[in-house]
Amino acid sequence: MRIEVIKSKYETGRDSYKVEVSEDEYMEILNKKLEEHNCTENEISQNISINMWKQCSYNGYTYGSTPEQWIEYMIVNFRKDVE
């Protein structure tokens, strides 16, 4: 995976990241995060596939998140209540 930080030209702006990640690398990160949270992909109410991550970026740029941060956010905020 290659990550290049693009500093905001505005003092109050967010930095962005130019990320190049392979599907295998993404799946490795995804599986690690799911294991950390002791859950499965089916327990997340939103699509967390690499294709969805790519759709949330713009021409390879992501604003304020790396794949790890995005997956963590999706797990924490969209995990279904399991009883």
Structural description of this entry:
With about 80 residues, the chain is an alpha+beta fold. The protein has one domain. Helix content is about 40%, strand content about 15%. Helix 1 (about 25-35) crosses helix 3.
Features:
3-stranded antiparallel beta sheet; single chain; 83 residues; globular; alpha+beta; 39% helix
- Molecular shape: globular
Round the Cα radius of gyration to an integer and report it. Answer: 14 Å
Q: Regions with pLDDT < 50 over 5+ consecutive residues?
A: none
> How widely separated are the two ends?
36 Å
Structural class: alpha+beta
**Please, how many helices?**
3
Major β-sheet annotation: 3 strands, antiparallel
Write the layout of secondary structure elements.
Layout: E1 2-6, E2 16-20, H1 23-36, H2 50-55, E3 61-63, H3 67-78
Helix pairs in contact: 1-3
Quick recap:
This protein is of the alpha+beta class and 83 residues long. It is built from three helices and three strands.
